[in-house]
Design goal:
Length: 166
Amino acid sequence: MKKFLFLIILVSTAVCLSHSLKAQDYKSAIGLRFGYPIAISYKTFLSETNALEAYAGYRGFVGYSWINVGALYQIHKPLSGVDGLQWYFGGGAGVQLYSYRNDFNFGDSGSFGIGLSGNLGLDYKFSNSPINVSLDWVPTIFIGNGFLGGFGGAYGGLAVRYTLGG
């Protein structure tokens, strides 16, 4: 709980201290997010600096599978010296549906959980190209029974998207 409270304070402080505006290089983008789990990603800017990323993912491994759907609210800030490069932070939530063989001794063999996530990353739009890439860290607190429960600090990924509008 202390880690979650720290994450909320960190994001709130960053929001309060950030006031610079810079137009993004694209309006929205769709593509794949390679990470844990692999997902389809759609990102759209709501204003000059605020974006919403929605994703739907799947992870399969020996003995279990996991489907998740969620969204992340992101605040983008430019990085000086490199055109098209921004850093971002934010947070969001997701729902995980999972099943597994019961020989893991996690209780029932399938259920759902809710994840509350932070988000910190880099976003780059290639000039003269419709390609956008982002690399981020998504620490998540899972609320659920059995397999999903607790803190996951190893989440994040590399997204490669095709930009729409710009």
